[in-house]
């Protein structure tokens, strides 16, 4: 990869600023595992897997718990805006940090376009006088503006976005629990005096295959938990915040995901056709059955805040990942340029690229093309998890050889780390042989990985050429 020209560095601060407060980091860590998939996409998973969906979400959550503990161990010792990409660079090699950093950037920047599209559809359904692409542009410009300001602004917006999601989920859990205990007097469930029935249905009505498929999907639903380790680099006490976030992963997953699934399967039959209807979603179906008026609009409002939160965090994470890659020489130097507020503004604008593409595709009624692009992100979550596990394995052994004190450790090292690596590799193999959709996702993701690895090769050849030319020039000067 050829040397990158430096962009103008006039009025450039020294770098990122420490503007995130503890309450910001707390809500960012909570919001990281709550995406639109919980409110909408989980319905289809319940429909296919049945009550066993609880098992899929619990096992997927256990894997993420281990991953976050490994990442936390490395992040407490070395807080960095590049997070796992930086650790892969140090532990495995520069090629690994380069690959996983750019793949992760591609994952989130592509997802931003889809999140903007969902937000545009919801707003258009309420106020149809503006086209979907118009609302998309409004959301994109607004959140770019937030990310161009100081990091405290990002933290403040994310705090309130996350708070809305958390409050909504807690209300859902309370109402659902009352209905299960027959203390909720309204809706179809109260009238029939019975529930959809966790104990009235077969646990695995369609066998083990849909549960395995659901487990693979659940792994993608949890992506975002690691964002807090990126954001913590801009906090005043990153080590403390990373510890707190890593330790709270278990209750967040149990409460928000497993709890929501448990409430739903206790109240709604898994074969309810509305569960697989993407215009409804898990929460809408359940709350409507409980007699909540205008439940779909209420849930759509929560989904709107959720996708805006996801877009906001994705843009933040993408710009910080580019900042780290640039500092390591794996991205153009201009992507590390910060404005007076300490925001890597060029990285923010560059990371919005695919969101703008999504606006154009929506305006030209070609959004189906974007589905093909999204397929290339399918296994990026597993690549990230694998990179984290391999990095922790090597870094932990290195620290132990050096006699370095580690007070925030991964449990039962190295056995759980090896088990996680084995499970991830096994999951990738299963995706290759289980179903047409997963095969397509895996193949397109492998193509994306191959493209990045070609970039690594070009980079290595380029640096080798530069080094050779420098040596020749040195000899000639002598």
Automatic annotation (TrEMBL):
Does the keyword section mention Transferase?
no
Residues of the Amino acid permease/ SLC12A domain: 24-454
Where in or outside the cell is it found?
Membrane
Keyword Cytoplasm listed? The answer is no
Question: Can you quote a single GO CC term?
Answer: membrane
Protein name in UniProt: GABA permease
Pfam families to which the protein is assigned, alphabetical: AA_permease
InterPro entries to which the protein is assigned, alphabetical: AA-permease/SLC12A_dom, Amino_acid_permease_CS
GO BP term, pick one: amino acid transport
Organism equals: Acinetobacter vivianii
**Keywords carried by this UniProt record:** Membrane, Transmembrane, Transmembrane helix, Transport
Q: Which domain of life is it from?
A: Bacteria
Protein topology in the membrane: Multi-pass membrane protein
What residue intervals traverse the membrane? 25-47, 53-71, 92-114, 126-148, 160-187, 207-228, 249-270, 298-323, 344-363, 369-390, 411-435, 441-458
């Amino acid at each position: 990869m050829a040397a990158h020209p430096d962009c103008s560095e006039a009025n450039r601060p020294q770098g990122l600023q420490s503007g995130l407060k503890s309450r910001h980091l707390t809500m960012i860590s909570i919001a990281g595992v709550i995406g639109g998939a919980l409110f909408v996409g989980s319905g289809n998973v319940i429909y296919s897997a049945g009550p066993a969906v609880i098992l899929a979400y619990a096992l997927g959550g256990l894997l993420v718990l281990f991953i976050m503990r490994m990442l936390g161990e490395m992040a407490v010792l070395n807080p960095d805006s590049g997070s796992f990409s930086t650790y892969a660079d140090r532990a495995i090699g520069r090629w690994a940090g380069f690959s996983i950093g750019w793949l992760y950037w591609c994952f989130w920047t592509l997802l931003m376009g889809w999140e903007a599209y969902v937000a545009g559809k919801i707003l258009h359904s309420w106020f149809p006088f503006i086209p979907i692409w118009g609302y998309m542009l409004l959301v994109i410009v607004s959140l770019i503006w937030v990310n161009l300001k100081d990091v405290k602004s990002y933290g403040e917006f994310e705090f309130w976005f996350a708070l809305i999601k958390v409050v909504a989920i807690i209300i859902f859990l309370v109402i659902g629990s009352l209905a299960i205990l027959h203390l909720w007097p309204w809706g179809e469930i109260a009238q029939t005096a019975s529930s959809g029935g966790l104990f009235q249905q077969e646990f695995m009505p369609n066998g083990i295959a849909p549960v395995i498929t659901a487990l693979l999907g659940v792994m993608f639903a949890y992506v975002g938990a690691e964002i807090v380790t990126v954001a913590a680099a801009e906090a005043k006490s990153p080590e403390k915040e990373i510890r707190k976030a890593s330790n709270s992963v278990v209750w967040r997953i149990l409460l928000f995901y497993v709890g929501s699934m448990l409430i739903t399967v206790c109240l709604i039959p898994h074969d309810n056709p509305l569960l697989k209807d993407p215009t409804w979603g898990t929460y809408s179906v359940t709350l409507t059955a409980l007699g909540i008026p205008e439940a779909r609009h209420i849930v759509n409002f929560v989904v709107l805040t959720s996708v805006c939160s996801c877009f906001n965090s994705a843009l933040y994470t993408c710009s910080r990942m580019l900042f780290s890659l640039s500092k390591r020489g794996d991205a153009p130097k201009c992507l590390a340029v910060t404005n007076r507020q300490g925001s890597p503004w060029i990285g923010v604008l560059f990371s919005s690229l695919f969101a703008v593409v999504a606006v154009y595709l929506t305006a030209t009624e070609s959004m189906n093309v974007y589905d093909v692009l999204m397929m290339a992100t399918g296994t990026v979550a597993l690549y990230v998890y694998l990179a984290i596990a391999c990095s922790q394995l090597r870094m932990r052994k290195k620290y132990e050889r050096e006699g370095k004190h580690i007070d925030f450790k991964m449990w039962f090292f190295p056995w759980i780390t090896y088990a996680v690596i084995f499970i991830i590799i096994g999951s990738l193999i299963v995706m290759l042989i289980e179903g047409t959709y997963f095969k397509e996702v895996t193949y397109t993701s492998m193509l994306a990985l191959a493209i990045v690895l070609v970039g690594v090769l070009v980079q290595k050849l380029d640096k080798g050429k530069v080094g050779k030319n420098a040596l020749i020039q040195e000899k000639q000067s002598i």
